[in-house]
Every structure is written in structure tokens, then in C-alpha cells.
Amino acid sequence: MKSAPFLGLAEALERVRGTPSKKEKVAVVSSYLRGLGPVDATVAARIASGRASERGSKDEAQVGYSTLLDVLREVTGASEGDVSKSYLKHGDLGEVAEELLADKKAQTLFAEELTLGDLDEAFARLRSAKGHGSASAKKGTVKSLLLAATPLEGKYLVKALTGEMRTGLVTGLLEEAIAAAYGLSKEEAARAHMVLGDIGAFAGRAAAGTAASVRIQPFRPVNFMLAEPFATAHEISERFGRTVYAEYKYDGVRAQVHRSGGDVRVYSRRLEEITSSFPEIVASFRGAPGDFILDGEAVPFAGGRPLPFQLLQRRLRRMEDFEEAAKKAPVTYFAFDILFREGEETVSLPLSERRRLLREVVAGTPARLAESSDVRSEEEVQAAFRRSRELGYEGLVVKDPAGPYAMGKRGGGWAKLKEELDTLDVVIVAAEYGHGKRAGVISDYTFAVRDGGELKTVGKAYSGLTDKEIDEMTRRLKEITVKDFGYRRQVRPEIVVEVAFDSVQRSGRHDSGYALRFPRIKRIRTDKGPSDIDGIGEVERIFSGQKLKVDEA
Ligand code: AMP
Question: Who is most buried in 59, 83, 143, 270, counting CB within 10 A?
Fold first, then answer.
């Protein structure tokens, strides 16, 4: 089948961009897609979503601004001045391309019509251009496309290559349009899209009429099921009202393990392949029976106890060699679910059933099954929670034995109970104007604790307040300014806030010698004054109680 002209897609996208109505955006795209075969639908949906390659693919086809600008100048004969003027006017490289191509000095003589297939081939060439000479190869590819493009095509081509569509066609609407074009229900569309993980692949299957039969497959990671947070054991027992599994909440890295044909691969929560970071997991499952996909947590574990999670971060950032890492913080995989077994999806089976399959797979491997106990009453949940904390785990994930594996959903049968984060009451001593959306307000606060008669800074918080609270803060901070350094102000220590944080580390950045990690403001303590704030002793106590004591890098 001959590939469809790219112009049709560019025109459809221009109409989508021109209407604020979501309904109309969906209608335009779905009627456009209806005329396409599977291959074209794949390319068109991908471009409409602002991508020139499959989601999760190792190689990207995106092209940098400077290359695009160079090519645009070459193709259109525009000067640097023309380009800057146009960019200042539009603030969008796609629109710059459209304007410059429309003014093009030398018109192409034999303009061949660009098809979606041409774009697909060109994107593949861009993805495969690597190493020496790749810059000029990419430039050549982009140039030949732009030479053949009309101004409108050039605009959407450049938008796809920069990933900046700005048509207001968010993924949800595009999914809806694909469903409408090919007669799929909302549920069928959502499921097929989720399992395939790429809007283009989904559109292709929808156009071919095979979207309803999309199944989970090894080496195609699927979105993880997530747990809904609960504050107390009481709420959890109320929520379920029957006997449930209380599993320990392991503090490590979530990992999906796929095995097929003797090959084992590991994927992260962001669906990236992380196999090379976890040689122990690969080794654990090399001799396991058959094909499967497991969900679980990679936990640094030694001597029957978990080690601090931070020990894994270095290996994920690929900062050291894995042999060394594996010795310092060996990883055990704690499996808690199974999504696929011997050619069949298992996500729709009840958890009790999946557990049975999981046990068979894990038995005889060095991996372990997540530990679990049956609980029902508030007291039982509380007791399980305490046991988990005593053993060094983070808390509990409580699961409904009858529930399916709800891919990509939070809640739906899983509830988590964690210990509250530490908090400190601190006083604001300095503040700065924010950036971007917060450029006009004072939204960054440096805060301090008491040290005898002095105040010592321990951190800086940017988040936690509502816009209204930030406006009020801005007004008050201006009133109590002692010294105005322009973007930064020193203020009288009067405003007390309660900050929550993940941990304390030693740091030379603040005069207390400590820094709070990821501090966020929990609330403004209007009920407290500067004499009520916490002292440095409290910071030291939290620091020395931590499992892992980190010095700032
Ligand atoms: P949170 O990161 O606080 O949202 O908690 C959810 C995370 O807990 C999951 O994404 C998993 O990485 C982790 N986790 C640890 N143990 C379990 C378990 N037994 N079941 C499910 N998730 C778990």
C-alpha cells in the first residue's frame, strides 16, 4: 500500500492546534486516522504525540536546535538575523521553520510529495546515526526532508524533531481519537495502549483491528501497580474489612524481571532496562523454570537484614563497577507478584492464585518471596507494622487476595502504611524570589534551628505551600526584611514553619554543619514563635538515629 501524504497529517494537526475544544481535537484526529493503514497510523500517532521514535527505544531521533537552525538557514537562505527575529516573534522553532520556508528565496523545482513512510525512514536514519560523522549525516537527512517540505509540513516536522508539538493534543485525547477512529471502547484502548507502552504501536494495532488481543509479552515492560497511602492501621482495616495480606514494605528499587528463552532482563519503574545494574538478579533467575514476568523489589540485603537503600543509588548512577558494588551491598530480589507465566498473562487472576504461581517460580532460586501475614483487625495490622519496623523494613503494603494486578494504577487493592517522616520546627531567616511561574514572589526560604543563643541554618525549602500562602508569605517577608540584596532578603526571624524531610546529612553549606534532605513545608506554625523552635540537639539526634549517615558529596 502506498504511504499517505504527510501534508494530511500536518493539516490535521494545524486544525487541532487552532481549536481550544477537546472534543473537536479528538474529532479532527480520529477522522484523519480513519483513512490510514496500520503502518501509517503508527507513524502519524507517534508524530502527533511529539515523538520521532518509539517510547522506551534506546535511540532517539531528536535533533538539536543548533543543527535545525543551521539546516533551516541553508535550505531557506535566511540570515542569522532573520532567524533570531523570527524566533523572538514566535518562541517556537516549528513556527520559525514555517515562516522561513514560506519566504524561501530559492523555490524547489521538483518538489516530491513527502509521505509518512518517507518520514519513518528518515527518523530511522536519524536514530541509527552514531559516532564519527553522525552530525553531518543527521544534518543531511534533515536537509533533504526540509527541502521537500511545504511550510506547514516543515513546521510539524521540526516540532516532531524537537518534541515540542504544542497542539494541546495530550496523550489521553490522542488515545481517545485512536479509539474513536477504529471503534474501540475506552477500556480496550486504555489497556492496549498501556500494555504496548507506545502510542504509535497502539495506533498500529488499532488500525489493524488487533488491539483487543494485545497481550503482555516478555521483554516489553508494563506499568507497575502502585499502592495508595494510608495514615493508620485503623484506616487500613476499615478500608478492606476482611482478611488481607500484610507484606513487608521493602526499601529498595522496584524491578520487573522478565525471563524468556533463558534470557533474563530487568526493568525499572520508569520502564527502562536496568539489567546491567543488577547482575545478581540475572544470576538468581538464570536457572529458574520457564518464562515469566515478576514484580518485586531489589533490596540491598546481608546477614538476614536489609541494608540502607542509599547503598543502591551509586550502582544505579553507574558510579562504580558492579563487582565492587555487589560485594558492598549485595542485592536480594524480593518478589511479590507475577504478571505472565508460560505464554499466558496472569494479571487478571486473583492475587491468591498469582501467589501460588509465584511461589513455584521463586522456589529453588536465591530470590525470595516477599514475607506476608494474614491480618484483619486494626490490632493485627498494627502488630504486623511493628514487626516490619523492628526487622528494619519501611512498613507494610496491604493487599486484597482477591484483587487483580491493576497495571499502572494506584490503589485498586494495594494500600501502604509507612512511618511518618521526621519533622522539625524551624524559623525563616532569609528568603529569595522564585523562578519561572514564581518569579514575582518570594518562594525559597532558608531556615534555621536554635544553637544556644544563636540561630544556625539547616536548609532551604521551596515547596509545600499553596500559591495563596506564598503570596501572604511574600507580603510578610517584605515587612520583616532587615537587608535587601535584590533577589535575596535577610529577614527578622519571626516566621516559624514545620518542615518534613527525608533525612539529615552533614554539610558545609549551612552554618549548623547539617542539611535536611528534601525538606518541604508541612505548615506555617502561626501558633509558635522563634523561641519555640527546635534546637541543634534535635537535628543531631535524628542524624545519629539514622541507619545511614551521609556526608554531603
Ligand atoms: P512508595 O514508594 O512509598 O509510594 O511505596 C510504594 C513502593 O513500595 C512500591 O513502588 C515498591 O517499590 C515498594 N514496595 C516494597 N515492598 C513492597 C511490597 N511488598 N509490595 C508492593 N510494593 C512494595
Answer: 83
